[in-house]
Amino acid sequence: MSRIAVMGGSAMEELPVSREIGSLETPYGRSSEVFLVRLGDTHVLFMPRHGADHSLPPHRVNYRANIWALKELGVERIVATNAVGAINPSMRPGDLVVPHDLIDFTKLRPTTFYDEPPVTHVDVSQVYCPEVRDALIEACRMVGVRFWDHGVLVCTEGPRFETPAEIRMFRLLGADLVGMTGFPEPVLARELGMCYATLCFVSNMAAGLQDRVSVEEVLRIGERVRGEVVKVLVEAIPKIPERRGCPCARALESARFGGRGC
Q: Can you list the domains of the chain with their CATH numbers?
C-alpha cells in the first residue's frame, strides 16, 4: 500500500483506478471511498472527498473519518486538490496555485481529534508541509503551467457561495483564494503526524469580481485544467522525499499538557 494519498476535490473525482479499496469504518464514522490508482509509474491511494459520485456537500464531508482512514492505511503524506475562487485579481480562472497559508472561516465542522485529555495544541506555523509544497511547485514549473507558488486560502462553511461583502473582508485580511474544503484537512493531518499540502485550481473569480458564480463554471474550468492538474501530480509525487525531513511527523512533540508527545 502506498504511503502517499491524493485527496481529490471538485472536478477531480476520477483517476485511472487499479483497485477499489472501499469506504472504511472509523471511530468517527465511515470515510469516503478509497481507491488504488496509478499516476505515471507510481501507485498511490486516491480518495475523492465528496464521494466518487460527488454526493457530499462541503459542510457534510466527514473530514475526521477521511483523514483517520488514510492514516490507518499507512499514509504519511497527503496531496490534496481544491477548486477555489480568486480573491486576488491577479489570479485568473485556470491558474494553478500552491497555497502557503490558511484562514479558517468555517463554523460547524469538527476540527480536531483531541476533544479529550491530554489537551493538545499542534503548531501550524507552517500549515502545509514544506516538502510536499516544494514538490508541487517544482512539478508546476516542469509541466509549464501558469501557476502561483504562494497564496493565502480562506475556507468558508458553504454550501452557498460567498457574498461580495465577505469577499471584500477576506481581501482586507490578506486572502488570495476562497474555497469550502480547505479546512480542516491540513490540521487534522497535522494532528496525526501526517504531511499535507494542496494544489488548487482557480475555477472562478470570487463574488463581486464577476457578475455571478455558478457550479457550471466550476465544472467547465475544472474540465479544462484537469489534464494539467494530473500532469503536475504525476511529476510531483516522485519528487516527494521518501524519508521525511519536515516537522510534520514531530507535530505532537511539545504539544500536550499532562502527557508525552509522540
A: 4-250 (3.40.50.1580)
Other CB atoms within 10 A of residue 216 CB: 8
Angle at 185 between CA 181 and CA 186, to 5 degrees: 120
Nearest to 5 by CA among 184, 185, 175: 185
Report which of 225, 187, 194 is spatially closest to residue 97, judged by C-alpha positions.
225
pTM here is: 0.94
- Can you name the residues that pair with 195 across neighbouring β-strands? 77
Confidence label for 139 from pLDDT (cuts 50, 70 and 90): very high
Q: Say what the pLDDT of residue 258 is.
A: 66
SS3 state at 2? coil
CA distances from 39 to 20, 217, 249 (A): 15, 27, 25
Using DSSP, state whether 148 is helix, strand or coil. strand
Pairing mode, if any, of strands 34-39 and 42-48? antiparallel
Q: Give the helix, strand, coil percentages of the chain, each rounded to 5.
A: 25, 25, 45
Q: Which amino acid is at 83?
A: A
Q: Is 211 exposed, middle or buried (0-12, 13-18, 19+ CB in 10 A)?
A: exposed
